[in-house]
Structure formats: structure tokens, C-alpha cells
Write a structure and sequence with these properties.
The complex is a heterodimer. Chain A is an alpha+beta fold. Chain A has one domain. Chain A has six helices and twelve strands. Chain B has a six-stranded antiparallel sheet with strand order 1-10-3-8-6-5. Chain B has a four-stranded antiparallel sheet with strand order 2-9-4-7, covered by helices on one side. Classes of the chains: A alpha+beta, B alpha+beta. At the A-B interface, helix 1 and helix 6 of A face helix 1 and helix 2 of B.
């Protein structure tokens, strides 16, 4: 693994980067209990965006883990989850806005708390997306790395504590140039009454395309998804 | 929230608007705050793919993840409040004789059909084509505004292991869902033309739309 970049995102922080075709982004939960809310778009044609419903239905899954692909609305693979020590990433919960954070944690202003102020996932992603010319219309359903929400037979949602341990990581391989926008912020359904988002480490590296075979060959759907992705580069 | 069947006392003959939408057609219409929209699955197990926008600012739209986490339940049914991406209540489901409606399955598209079924399925009609066609003619909406939709009458349960399954048999001829608008909204529907999925018995059918002021 040829490491190109290593960076720690503090709890509450947000950042964005282009993971180029053939590169892989490792996200590591440093302390355990982290949550990373993620939005992705095609870096060269930003109207092409992460489409979680398309990703879920074509792989017959609601959770996301190793072997799964994250699809755009154009039937291409923005990222393939080629390694995952955590086992379950959430597609249901989305990101809180300022009102929801206030309801849960109370007031936490910059005036008093400086950079420990209470941030929210919606605004963090909107700010980061705005830097690339993206707007609230581009903020679609988001993925929450390291979090798990169970669904009972009657549909009741329950947040599962302890899903991710210190050192757990997920590797996102990009078969196309993918703009990844993320924030390390608490999951909206995390019952913890304290505002305490956890830090994560990002490692960007060159990858052997062979690492994506576990995803490409996981099902016939993904074989076709990779064909669609290759055709974008003809 | 467990699904509870709630029957409406509204009579079709008093509706201010009544239209049947054939399978495979889009429908874009305004519904004013306080008005009630009924969507009827005329022949059973038809997917009615639906998006909602604020009439005052169409950038404000239905937000499935906020809606689900606020009700702490995966399925929409009577009592569900549909929230926007700005956190406002858009519509409330006030009657439902089906009992469960999907928010995770999204809409079919030419491109997702190539992934799900076969590369050569690209040229079959799809919900996203309907959405984009309606957006292009209406002028207030564009591809950027096409987000995750509700699939009325579709049953897409999540298993304990996190699997996603497409089940049939929950809707039936004449079942309906009724929504009261909490703000002025634009309703964008694609009456799903999907021919590759057993959830509608490979047979897309008409839906009826009624509005009471």
C-alpha cells in the first residue's frame, strides 16, 4: 500500500477529497464508537451522485459492508467496500440538522465553546459540498460509516451501541474519480445524551485494482456495475 | 410505529379533482396546504413512485432519512409525517388501507436496470425517465431535485441480518393511501413501468388520484 495522505479528522470535523480512480481511502475509528456521515459524487460530472436506494436494492441489502458497492444514479460504482473490520454501516439514519442537535444536546455555541461547539451533520456536509459548487439539492441520502441501526419486524428502528471498536476500519476503493465529502459526527439515533463525536483517521493510498475483485464478483449486479464504470473511461 | 389501517370518510364524488394515471405515465400536480390527496392502487400491487416538493421553494423536498428517524420506524403508514430536507412537515398520512409503504427502494432508472437485470435492459421505460420528463416540461425542477422517493404500496422489509427483500402481496385492488398537505406542495409521481420485478407480478397497472380541497 503506497500511502499518499494521512490525516485525522477531529470529532465534529468535516472534510472532502477526490479519491482518484485506482486509489483507496481507509477510514479508521480511532477510539471506538465513531460515526462518519458520507456523501459522494462523480468528481468530473457532479450531477452524478451517490444513490443509496439503487445501491441497496441491487445488492439486496440495507446494511453495507465488505463486498458491497456504493452506486451512483448512473449505475456506476463510486466506491467499493473492499475491506471492513466493523461489519455493518448504516444506510437509514442520515444526518441531523441544527434543530435536531439542539433538541438532543442543548445549546453549544461557538461563543462559549470555541471549536468544541456543537456541530451538525447536515450543515457540515453542506459547507463542505458548497466548496465544490454543490448545494442542498445535492445532499441526498447519506451513508453512516461505523453505525448500525436494526429494524424490527414491525419496522421499529433501534441504534445498536458498540458496533465499532477502536481500530476498526473500512477501505473504500474508487473505480472512478470520486469526490468524497464526509463529517465525523454522532449518528442521529445515537442515544448518548452528551455531544461527543469521535475522531477518525483517513489514509489515502494507491491500490491494486485486484482488491476490488471481492466486490466486483460478489454478485452479477456488481459485475455489470463495474462494466458500466469502465465504459465511462472509454 | 406499527401499521394501522385507517379508512377515510371522504367520498370520491365530492373530490375536487379526480384522474386515472395509466401505468408508465408521470403526473405532476400542486396540492395546497389543507387539501387531501388520495392515491388508489386500482388493480393491486402497483408501485406509485412519488416525490414531494415545497411549492414556495422547490429546493425544499421530501427527506426520507429524516422522516424515518423522526418516527423511529422504517415504514410509512397512517400517522406518518413526511418531513422535508429543511426539517418541516410537508404532508401527513391520514388514511391508509394498505398498511405499509417503502422509502428505501427508490425509483427504477435505465441505468439501475442495467445493473439489476441486464445491460440490454437499458432501453426499457423507467420511473426516472418519467420524473425527468415531467421536470423538463414543468421547468421548476431538474435532475438535481430528483431524490429518494416513496414507493406507495410497495413492501420492502429489512431483515434482522440487514438484508433487503422485495415482498409482494400487501396491497390489493382498491387499496389507497391519503395524505393531507401541511404546506403547499408539488407532487411528482411516476406510475412505475417496471417489467422486470415480480413485486407487481410483471404487470404495471393504473392508479387513481383524487384531491379534496
Amino acid at each position: 500500500m503506497n500511502l499518499l495522505l494521512e490525516e485525522t479528522v477531529p470529532g465534529g470535523g468535516h472534510t472532502s477529497l477526490i479519491v482518484k480512480r485506482g486509489q483507496s481511502l481507509r477510514v479508521t475509528d480511532l477510539h471506538g464508537g465513531a460515526n462518519v456521515s458520507v456523501m459522494m459524487v462523480n468528481a468530473t460530472e457532479k450531477s452524478e451522485r451517490l444513490n443509496l436506494p439503487d445501491s441497496l436494492k441491487c445488492q439486496h441489502t440495507a446494511k453495507l459492508t465488505a463486498g458491497h458497492c456504493l452506486y451512483s444514479d448512473m449505475g456506476r460504482v463510486l466506491a467499493a467496500i473492499v475491506a471492513d473490520t466493523c461489519g455493518w454501516h448504516d444506510s437509514i439514519g442520515g444526518v441531523s440538522n441544527a434543530d435536531e442537535v439542539f433538541e438532543r444536546y442543548g445549546s453549544g455555541r461557538y461563543q462559549e465553546l470555541r471549536n468544541a461547539f456543537y456541530r451538525n451533520g447536515t450543515d457540515n456536509l453542506l459547507v463542505e459540498m458548497s466548496k465544490w459548487g454543490l448545494t442542498i439539492s445535492d445532499l441526498l441520502m447519506t451513508l453512516n460509516l461505523f453505525s448500525r441501526v436494526d429494524v424490527s419486524d414491525d419496522g421499529t428502528l433501534s441504534f445498536v451501541k458498540g458496533n465499532s471498536k477502536a481500530g476498526d476500519y473500512v477501505d473504500l476503493y474508487a473505480p472512478m474519480n470520486t469526490l468524497v465529502v464526509l463529517t465525523a459526527i454522532q449518528h442521529p439515533l445515537d442515544p448518548n445524551p452528551e455531544y461527543s463525536p469521535k475522531p477518525v483517521k483517513l489514509e489515502l493510498s494507491e491500490a491494486d485494482p485486484g482488491v476490488a475483485e471481492v466486490c466486483r464478483t460478489a454478485c452479477d449486479e456488481n459485475v455489470r456495475g463495474f462494466i458500466n464504470t469502465e465504459r465511462f473511461f472509454l | 410505529m406499527t401499521s394501522t389501517l385507517v379508512v377515510s370518510d371522504k367520498r370520491p364524488e365530492t373530490a375536487a379533482f379526480r384522474q386515472t394515471v395509466a401505468a408508465g405515465e408521470p403526473w405532476l400536480h400542486e396540492v395546497k396546504a389543507g387539501s387531501t390527496l388520495r392515491i388508489v392502487d386500482l388493480e393491486g400491487n402497483q408501485a406509485v413512485d412519488t416525490l414531494f416538493y415545497s411549492l414556495a421553494d422547490p429546493r425544499e423536498r421530501f427527506d426520507p432519512q429524516r422522516t424515518l428517524r423522526r418516527q423511529k420506524s422504517l415504514y410509512l403508514t397512517a400517522g406518518s409525517v413526511l418531513y422535508s430536507n429543511r426539517g418541516n412537515a410537508m404532508l401527513t398520512i391520514v388514511a391508509d388501507t394498505c398498511g405499509r409503504h417503502d422509502t428505501l427502494g427508490g425509483a427504477c432508472a435505465q441505468e439501475s436496470n442495467t445493473v439489476r437485470y441486464a445491460l440490454e435492459k437499458r432501453y426499457m421505460h423507467s420511473c426516472r425517465d418519467n420524473f425527468l420528463r415531467a421536470c423538463a416540461h414543468d421547468g421548476r425542477l431538474s435532475k438535481q431535485d430528483v431524490s429518494a422517493n416513496v414507493n406507495f404500496f410497495m413492501n420492502v422489509p429489512v431483515t434482522a441480518e440487514g438484508g433487503l427483500t422485495f415482498e409482494d402481496g400487501i396491497s390489493a385492488p382498491g387499496k389507497y393511501v391519503e395524505l393531507r398537505a401541511e404546506m403547499d406542495v408539488i407532487v411528482l409521481i411516476s406510475n412505475c413501468p417496471q417489467l422486470n420485478n415480480p413485486c407487481n407480478a410483471y404487470n404495471p397497472t393504473p392508479a387513481e388520484l383524487l384531491i379534496w380541497d
